[in-house]
Amino acid sequence: MKDWMKIVDANLIPINEGRKVSVNGVEVGIFNLGDRFLAVKNSCPHQKGPLSDGIVSGGSVFCPLHNWKISLQSGRVENPADQIDCSVKTYHLEKKGDDLFIQL
Amino acid sequence: MKTKLAMIGNGMAGIACLEEIFKLSSEFEVTIFSEEPHVNYNRILLSSVLAGEKKLDDIYLHPLEWYEKHQIDLKLGVKAADIDMKKKTVTGSDGSIATFDKLLFATGSSPFIPPINGVDKEGVVIGGGLLGLEAARGILNQETNTTVVHLADRLMDVQVDSIGGDYLKSSIEKMGVNVLLSKITTQLNGNGRVTGLTFKDGQEIPADFVVIACGIRPNVELAKTTGAEINKGIVVNDLMETSHPDIFAVGECVEHRGKVYGLVAPLYDQAKILAKTMTGQKDEGYEGSVLASKLKIMGIDVFSAGSVQGQEAEEEVVKYEDPVLGIYKKCVVKEDKLVGAVLVGEAEDANRLLEMIRSQEELGEKRTSLLFPPPEAEAGSKEDVMSLPDTHTICGCLGVTKGDIVSSIISGGIKTMAELKEETKASTGCGTCTKTCNKILKTVSGADFSEDEKDILCKCIPFEHEQLRVIIESQELKSVQDVLEVYGNGHGCPKCKPALSYLVDQIWCGGHEEDRSSRFINDRVHGNIQKNGKFSVIPRMRGGITSPDELRKIADVADKYEAKMVKVTGSQRIDLLGVRKADLPKIWKELDMPSGHAYAKAVRMVKSCVGEDFCRYGTQNSIGAAIELETRLENLYTPAKVKLGVVGCPRNCAEVTVKDIGLVGFEGGWDVVIGGASGKSVRAADILISVQEEEEALQMAMLFFQYYRENGKYLERTYDFVERIGVEKIRAKTVYASEEEKKGFLDRLHKSKEKSFDPWKREAIKPENPLQFKELDLVEPTDKSALINKK
Ligand code: SRM
Ligand SMILES: Cc1cc2nc3c(=O)[nH]c(=O)nc-3n(C[C@H](O)[C@H](O)[C@H](O)COP(=O)(O)OP(=O)(O)OC[C@H]3O[C@@H](n4cnc5c(N)ncnc54)[C@H](O)[C@@H]3O)c2cc1C
Ligand code: SF4
Ligand code: FES
To answer: What is the ipTM of this complex?
Structure first.
């Protein structure tokens, strides 16, 4: 079993926004969806856009560079339709008390 | 000699009957007494007007031209006051007299006029039926505390069963309406003005105003004086004849087989039969209607038809419930026929079920797909609608069948929904069948089909810009999330969220509730995102004027924060390209220059030329005017970026005739030009007006600027806006508008300006969110014991 690392006070991430954290050099986008927190690799499968800067919609984020839509739960590309085989890595994120923990 | 027909009442049923009569005969000369001062309108959509979703103009059914075409003597705002059956005359409240051979009562029931004025705090609706709930929704939108008081132990008790009532109650409550059930109101308290209500059980609640929606009372007072038989309503037989040979009646004022109907579908059935009777084409007559109703509150779907309780002998009940999604479906089957249905939470399937109830076909195999349509009939497939029988009713409100629609498309060469509505009236009632009509039209008219020009913002919130502005304003919605939750799909997307962010800001002149998650990253960090995730910084240099001191600061910052490039932009300012997000607040602070908004849909620069101070041809102080204009408009957001310029003579060195707004100086005055472009399109600006003084020129530019802010669609540059609206109209609405209107524009502009701010200055000191610019860099401690194992 891998270790869980404490990253940040969850209250600092506004609802429906993402923030970038680098954990041991890996850049991770963490997102507050209101009812849950999710984490994906912070690099769009298209041209490495910083997903944490995208607009969150439902359970997905739209990349700020060219608007690809990526599911935060599965990491899969949802749009454009011909790219749905691409995906980004997702990470386990858990909230305990006020803090967020990540497992890489 | 034509038959003189006097009709009292100008409502939906009466007019529907006249339409039928005109189809069958041209032998009638019609006079209409209409107590209401306007032409016939769609009363069903009145709740939408109350809720501010529609304007009265949107819901008129028959324009004045229709009355003229049929040579109807329409007495608007004239109540029929007296009838003399011996002389056969009707006397109007204005003293006018109409003689008749036949008299038609279409007086409806007592109108329902909620006294809403928006200042009250506590609104109470007595009656939890269809109208009561729709009224409550209307009041809620006016930001009033709203309570619905209902006599029965569940809402809409006539239409839904007790479980359905629970589902309905919880969605109504979620909307923010308080619901009190099993309460008999015995008294309205207060002296002259309501202060509260008392119930039979002794409980009292406060109220600033009360809406009574406890059912309908047919308007029969006047009909009583004619000697025709009256009970609850004007009594008619199956041929829609009253007890008097020259008197007829149709609509909500009618009682047929002991029943008074308060929904349009049965009234239209009546109207058709009556038209036949009056034109001498008697047929089998009217046998009563299956009642079906739909609650028209956005986000709360309720449908009910036929017998819904399912407690009678031989009635079998088929049910489905999902408490989490709030969906409840129930069908009542009797002798293998569907006799009733209730849908709460999701009513897309309403028409299919209603048709099964109306046709009384044997269910047979269809029984297995009662609650969910069989997959092959999935909505969207063309076969689905086209395989319906011609007798299938598509528009329940107006009783239009598939056959009617298909034949009028073919015979009338119809290509658009607008034409289809005009021709068949289908989907002009509650509008829920619009999709189906559209599908039939597409299939039947094939290649001829053309989409109505409708320009909705986005699928998440399917309204046009103009409608959204009305909704946001009348509903007093102050944040993007509020708009999306009440009128959209709740979460929005990168297309609609920034647009709504702009609209709430513009409408409330900066007094909206800012929701940063709805903004594009550029607007959250006040810089332009670049291909590698870095940002660019372009400080404001009003009029393109800078100083050695500023240049030094720029140079220092560029060095210190390792800007990848320093570039003179196409807009007379300087760009620091490729800096890190984390450094932005520090850069702003050290530059100590205002944001140039180069990243936003906002006022960009005002370019200038050297002008009269230096140039040998200069006729006007272009630099001064440019700096003044930029100072007045900077920090304001716009539908799309706005680039301006001022030049001192028509040589136009700063290219202002290809800018959104430009001032072109000449000897003795200024041309104010608008709508120029030199980006994706190239367009020479139009002259808005020529004036003499600089201050006048600035005011004219500001008028257009605010007009564009209030009427432009999001992302619509002025070059499209000016073409869409037309320069003539823009002139009439801005520079040639009344002094009062002009003052209105400028006042709102000033109000927005007062609330506006320089985001760099604000966030350099204290970012909105502490993590917005921070880079969190975590390294796993080498001492493993510090790690939290399994949290
Ligand atoms: C920096 C600059 C180019 C330069 O080095 O000179 C620039 C850079 C960009 N322009 Fe521009 N435009 C710049 C002047 C212009 C001009 C010239 C002018 O302003 O006089 C035009 C033509 C005039 C006009 O706007 O009509 C211009 C027409 C566009 C357009 C086409 C707009 C249109 O509707 O026709 C876009 C795309 C858009 O807005 O949709 C665009 C979009 C962009 C964006 C923001 C693309 C983007 O979304 O990232 C570029 C950002 C690059 C970056 O990495 O920062 N830029 N752009 C100029 C900044 C001016 C400033 O000081 O603020
Ligand atoms: C807010 C609201 C929502 C509704 N929603 C739905 C719905 O979703 N579905 C549905 O099927 N139905 C709905 N209805 C009911 C539907 O609108 C009515 O059943 C229908 O309009 C009745 O038509 P009518 O012609 O009989 O009466 P009305 O349309 O009421 O017309 C009667 C007219 O006669 C006039 N009049 C009366 N006496 C006189 C006189 N002495 N002289 C001159 N004029 C006179 C009245 O002023 C009135 O204009 C709704 C009604 C309201 C008010
Ligand atoms: S023209 Fe403008 S948008 Fe195109 S590459 Fe150059 S800066 Fe970018
Ligand atoms: S980098 Fe994400 S869409 Fe292009």
So the answer is: 0.75
